[in-house]
Amino acid sequence: MKLDLFDYELPEELIAQTPLKNRSDSRLMVLDKKTGEIEHTVFKNITSYLRPGDCLVLNDTKVLPARLFGTKDDTGAKIEVLLLKQQEGDQWETLVKPAKRVKAGATVHFGDGRLKAVCVKELDHGGRIMEFKYDGIFYEVLNELGRMPLPPYIKKQLDDQDRYQTVYAKELGSAAAPTAGLHFTESLLKEIEEMGVKIVFITLHVGLGTFRPVNTDDIEKHDMHAEFYQVSEEAAQTIMDVKNSGGRVFSVGTTSTRTLETVAAAHDGKIVAASGWTDIFIYPGFEYKAIDALITNFHLPKSTLIMLVSALAGREHVLHAYETAVKEKYRFFSFGDAMLIK
Questions:
Q1: Domain 67-145 is in which class?
Q2: pLDDT, tens digit, 9 for 90 and up, residues 172-216
Q3: In terms of CATH, what superfamily is 3-63+160-341?
Q4: How much is the pTM?
Q5: CB atoms within 10 A of CB 248
Q6: Which terminal residue of the chain has fewer beta carbons within 10 Å of its beta carbon, N or C?
């Protein structure tokens, strides 16, 4: 299956650079996965498409303020360090810019020395293992000194860091937000729950690989990055109860979808308590076992995420929906508008 099959024309001005003032005021395109029919509404009307007995599955991961700007001790050079993954103790796998200035043994300090990092190992492509030294609690220091690692297509810094977190973010560990969830407010979630819809939280920590382009013309040769997920006993039981009683599972975002489909694929279509690393790659031909409907944002051309959506609704329906979104001037990507595929 060729990569070009998932391309579309996107004017740059449609890439949302800032979030809307009110989360649930974003637009919502509703796509019927069987017929390809499209409706246009606003996100707060998502309640019109839910029924008592359905289930809404949300990813409660929390984005680390993982971008640090510091100074090299010996030369005073400006260094940017992006935390990717905790290794052991206070050692982290990071991306460093400019990497050529940070060799093994180099020290970088941040916030007038409140936080220091020593390079203990050089990796490929700007990667470095950095060991951090600090007083107090690491995450509190990071919260004070770090910035949100916004996607590369967003050029403006955020005035309010919390706008790149969902209102239900809880489990620290993501390099990027599960952006389909950014449209929900606490009052909208309460309204949904009062309708008789079950709200379930699972966790998948989003890696930076989510922004990595597909570099192979044959998509089946693409290597997916692995991400850590966790589904609790309570979450699994609730989802199975909903499925067994004829309710529908609405997955919020591609991260929740990849988690649920990973678990279902390993357990004959059932959702059970599980945790581990998933590198599941969902593209047309994939048979969904866990979810019935998907709430998601509009994704990059030729990305693994548009392939995942195409596997659910059909490539032709999805590309037509995207062409319609461009024509109707929807806002795209992380801070953009939403789509419901039902």
A1: mainly beta
A2: 989 889 999 999 999 999 999 999 999 999 999 998 776 678 889
A3: QueA-like (3.40.1780.10)
A4: 0.90
A5: 18
A6: N
